[in-house]
Write a structure and sequence with these properties.
This protein has four helices and no strands. The chain has about 110 residues and is mainly alpha-helical. The longest helix has about 30 residues. The radius of gyration is 27 Å and the shape is elongated. The N and C termini lie far apart (about 80 Å).
């Protein structure tokens, strides 16, 4: 008994013998891809409050929203790397208070 294959039946080659003996087209070389300039599709689910803040930043800075988001991600990432978990969590709790004056005083402790 023959087993039934679950896939499609492969198509037979319809070219000539000469086509079989020709070298194939060279593939494009995949060099190092620049991750900073390669466009990716982004889907962000954000609160209405964050959307309002993003629109305000967009209006003040006159830049694309995607650039503002990339800057925010870079800031978040490098602050987390530089401060460590404990200090970063303290900073985020200060930010969540949404009080610019309190945050100014808190950041003053870092002596930047």
């Amino acid at each position: 008994m023959l087993k039934e294959s679950k896939g499609k039946i492969p198509k037979l080659f319809a070219g000539s013998v000469n086509d079989l003996t020709k070298p194939s087209k060279p593939r494009k070389e995949k060099g190092k891809e620049d991750l900073k300039h390669q466009k990716k599709q982004k889907t962000l689910y954000i609160s209405l409050d964050i959307n309002k803040k993003l629109i305000e930043l967009y209006g003040e800075e006159g830049r694309r929203q995607s650039i503002i988001v990339e800057d925010a991600v870079n800031l978040y990432y490098y602050l987390r790397q530089a401060l460590g978990e404990k200090k970063f969590d303290e900073l985020m709790s200060a930010i969540r208070k949404e009080d610019p004056e309190f945050l100014r005083e808190y950041m003053g402790k870092f002596r930047l």
